[in-house]
Amino acid sequence: MNTKTWMSVSAAALAVAGGAAAEAQDGRFELRSDTMIARADPFAPDEELLTPLGAPFDLETGFDSNTWARWVQPLEGRKVLRFEQQVRVRAYFDRDELNSILLTPRVQYWDTTADNRFQFRIYGAYSHLTRDGDTQWTRPETEVQLRWRPNGTRTAETVARVRLNAYDFEDAALQGLDSTRVRYGLEQFFRTEDESLQLRLSAFFETADADQARFSFEEVRTRAEVAWRPDDKTVVIAGLDYRDRDYDAAFGGAFPQPRADQRFTGDIRVEREISERITAFAAAGYLDNESNISLRDYAGETFQLGFRVEF
């Protein structure tokens, strides 16, 4: 199925869902904005930077602002339609050429059975990322989810996901980066009845079919995360994440072997509500991307320090 076909299917499904709006309830507007100083990996999912041979990857420190404006529209029964616009701005202290703006409009629909045991979700989105004023890539995307709550409550929840997207690197110095990616995921949530404690276990398998085989890959990802609420205003989150990615063909140039990466991250995060609308947060962690390609081998400490505003 080509890109135009699957995006048309996604759009059609969302349009049919929207037809139920004739009996809809009153909608509501939501705004959330996270603003922080962060040291992190600015490259994923980019493979190409600014030179034909690429440039060494590393962690970078800078300003990161991520804002979501949403309109949530309940429909008849337990159906919901949500329209969202995401704007993410990243500006780095020492790498001006990596500064980026990401724009993503998104439409999501979900429906829940009367006994609250099953929920179906689907969304369609289109992302456009610019670096230093020039288009880096565009990405249409759709995802389907099925959520199962065996007890009809949130104490146990299983989520199956299938995501499909397509990257178009419009002005890339490297050729062959354009790719279609499919990701399959399974997640398990365990929560206490008061939801003061949550365990989240995740496993994903992703394939990328690129124009050139050296950028095609298969990746297995696992993650474990624990969230604890010691009181009504505080959340402590600890997570471990591991990815194993293998590419299909020789990297090229001075690297005649296919690229292979093993990526590990661990972090702990504390969030504290300081008013009805404002939450402060801080996070610290470590990232280690081991690669057989020296340009893609890097490691170091990560952090976030910022605040969230919600309306």
Annotation keywords:
14-stranded antiparallel beta barrel; 311 residues; 65% strand; globular; Porin; 14 strands; mainly beta
What is the CATH architecture annotation? Beta Barrel
Number of strands: 14
- The SSE order reads HEEEEEEEEEEEEEE
Estimate nothing, just give the exact number of structural domains: 1
What do we call the CATH homologous superfamily?
Answer: monomeric porin ompg
Mean pLDDT: 89
- Low-confidence runs: none
Proportion of residues in helical segments: under 10%
**In what range is the share of β-strand residues?**
over 45%
Write down the oligomeric state: single chain
Q: In terms of structural class, how would the helical and strand content be classed?
A: mainly beta
The best one-word shape is globular
Summarize the main sheet.
Answer: 14 strands, antiparallel, barrel
Major beta sheet, strand line-up: 1-2-3-4-5-6-7-8-9-10-11-12-13-14
Q: Would you give an account of this structure?
A:
This protein is mainly beta and 311 residues long. The protein has one domain (3-310): Porin (Beta Barrel). It contains one helix and 14 strands; from the N terminus they run H-E-E-E-E-E-E-E-E-E-E-E-E-E-E. It has one helix at 3-18; strands spanning 28-40, 60-74, 79-92, 100-112, 118-131, 134-148, 156-167, 179-191, 197-210, 217-231, 234-252, 255-273, 278-291, 298-310. It has a 14-stranded antiparallel beta barrel with strand order 1-2-3-4-5-6-7-8-9-10-11-12-13-14. 15% of the residues are buried. The model has no long low-confidence stretch (mean pLDDT 89).
